[in-house]
Amino acid sequence: MKKKHSSQIHILLDKIEVMSIMNCSGIFTGENMQANWRTFQKTNMGFGVVAGEYNDSDSNLNIVHDPDVVDMPVQNKSSN
Prior knowledge:
By secondary structure, the protein is low in regular secondary structure. The chain has strands spanning about 10-15, 15-20.
């Protein structure tokens, strides 16, 4: 019998079940207001994602060529 793989995050709120949380995430219940949320992200992935159990990856060569000087220009607006 295989052992069931448990994730790092498992939240159960009444009937809301959260199995994973990614960048700039939130869980809100009741009366609330979230304001001014901003997120900026750039990712280069040369291999990808390996998920599951008993995975092997041998003798790999991964190259990421990213010649950009500025990938994602962000202009922050200051609040007064």
